[in-house]
Amino acid sequence: MKAYHLNGHAGAARLVRTDLIKPEPASGEVRIRVEAASLNYRDLLIFDRAGQGGFDGRVPLCDGAGIVDAVGADVVQWRAGDRVAASYFRDWISGPFKSSYVPSALGSSAMDGMLAEYVVLPATALVSVPEHLTSIEAATLPCAAVTAWHGLVTRGGMGKDATLLVQGTGGVALFGLQFAAALGARAIVISSSDEKLARAKALGASILINYRDTPDWDVAVMKATDGAGASHVLELGGPGTYDRSLRSVASSGKIVQIGVLTGFGPKPDLARLQWENADIIGVTVGSVEHFTAMNRFLGEHAIHPIVDRVYDFDDAPEAYVHLRSGSHFGKIVVRL
User: Fold this and answer.
1) Closest CA to 328 of 163, 169, 109
2) What is the pTM of this model?
3) Quick one: 41 exposed, middle or buried, by C-beta within 10 A (0-12, 13-18, 19+)?
4) pLDDT of the residue at 49
5) Contact criterion met (CB below 8 Å) for 207 and 187
6) SS3 for 172?
């Protein structure tokens, strides 16, 4: 079968096309013929780390969807022909998160990912693809969509009376915006591009802030909300945005902490959280149970993921280049 793996050489990383033996499912396992895989910012971090070693030979990407091709003994919930997507954490099925789940993240230093023609996973690590979605659309869901759902809806309790602040127009951001719009919540989007803000407005954003024109966007958020602030802040930027997020959150509000997009740096001053009785919710994706609940919501509201660009398998390295450029609006997908 065709696949890609990461290769580190002389301090740099490469994405290498390779041929591997098609895997066979053991008892309790399912083989998936992957039809599409998508990229996340995480994949750039892993690619860069691969140049320093630790990922040599690993098949990358945590996101993918396709068709059940074969099932092992004792598998009763899936059969050949079922449309499925893989959960980000192979072992986090339900219940609270445990640190022992970390090594089971697909496309990590300990686990191969989805950028291969065939993948074998435990039957318990899969979810059904919503009927209204293509495999290309479904491949965008496991990391970005589940992250936004778990943080904003499952733990954040976002509803129709909420005001959501979204940073940028990448995958997690747009899924958060789409969930807010479906729930009837108000959404504020910040971006450096007027064109992207216009597209965000078409998806349901009601307050648009260009942070290049308005670098003090936290002040603009407070003004636009009559001093109340945002009940939910989808914090994607990291050190470069955190202090402004803290100044934008409403009393009793929630900051859903996800991002490291501006790197790892000085820690923000968290004192305002105490005075405003606000919370920080730390989120690293979610479980199979979260994924399943989110898919029901997607089906009920006929939500389609926003796909920026689709690359053919042979052009997968170009997908990484496009992601690194930051020019995308939504998700970048590789079609197998």
Assistant:
1) 169
2) 0.95
3) buried
4) 87
5) yes
6) helix
